[in-house]
Amino acid sequence: MTDEQDNVQDEPLPVGHVPVLTEPLLDLVKLPTDGIAADATVGHGGHSLLFGQTLGPEGLLIGLDVDPNSLEAARSTLSGLSCRVILVRENFARIGEVLRHQGVGRVHLILADLGFCSAQMEDAERGLSFQTPMPLDMRLDDRLDVTAADLVNKLSQTELADLIYEYGQDRASRRIARFIVQQRSVKKLTVTTELATVVCKALKQSPRRGRIHPATRTFQALRIAVNDEMDNLDNLLKQAPKLLLPGGYIAIISFHSLEDGRVKRNFLQNKEEGVYEILTKKPIIAERQEALRNPRARSATLRIARRTTLE
Fold this sequence. Notes:
By secondary structure, this protein is of the alpha/beta class. It folds into two domains: 22-119 and 229-307, Vaccinia Virus protein VP39 (Rossmann fold, 3-Layer(aba) Sandwich); 127-227, Orthogonal Bundle (DNA polymerase, domain 1), CATH 1.10.150.170. It contains 13 helices and eight strands. The chain has helices spanning 22-28, 46-52, 68-77, 95-101, 118-122, 148-154, 157-168, 173-186, 192-203, 216-227, 229-243, 257-272, 288-293; strands spanning 36-39, 60-65, 84-89, 107-113, 244-254, 276-278, 284-285, 301-307. Strands 1, 2, 3, 4, 5, 6, 7 and 8 form an eight-stranded mixed beta sheet that branches. Helix 7 (157-168) packs across helix 10, helix 8 crosses helix 9 (192-203) and helix 11 runs parallel beside helix 12. It is elongated.
């Protein structure tokens, strides 16, 4: 896989949530025993556990997540660590605010795994699966106001086409939008499998044809829009230099080219300004064995930079 490839995250196979790309992360990121690590997407705590085990009693691990179920899972996962652990239900776009509230100025590590976990995919209330009938929701944070059903049933045909093209990078976006508008004029789309069926009809493809489901790009686009994922990522990247100590690391795991492109451009800009040293000259992807063990890793891309100076 290269930078230019579009590694769309297809629906993962039903495996437990396993952290991806852990070996290169631990090889490149070295924390002092009294270090401070901020896991911007703590999830079930897999990555945090690995770094937390390198911290001593003077160390601090701060984990953010918008999903209360994930925070409960992380609390259990991290309960045996000797370092102090603080878990906060908040979006990583507000990471600076969270750190200030905890009395933390700068940290040794900011880590973000931008993918969603298998438990969220299987959660009937999330509406992320196009293979199982679920409410057409897609909110990773249930405090948000707008659902995928709202977008699908209320946006104009042009707005839908633009959304699917921009965030799903699907060249058939206009045709898909037209089919959606035609279907909703008969009956509102409220179930994930209903939308998936419409997309398959628009593309004249069977859901069983090929490895990637025909609705993958449309579902990705709606999820990104519902959760404002691109703006949130931009906010995290913008804040990071001011939150990292000299020699501190920022490590981002992306799952599609829209995310990875933003991370790449941000790292390069900060390198040109003398703020970052980029440790991953090329994005790191999973070795074949890891991809076979953990299907979620097959589309994961890791970039790491290190803070060089303070302004």
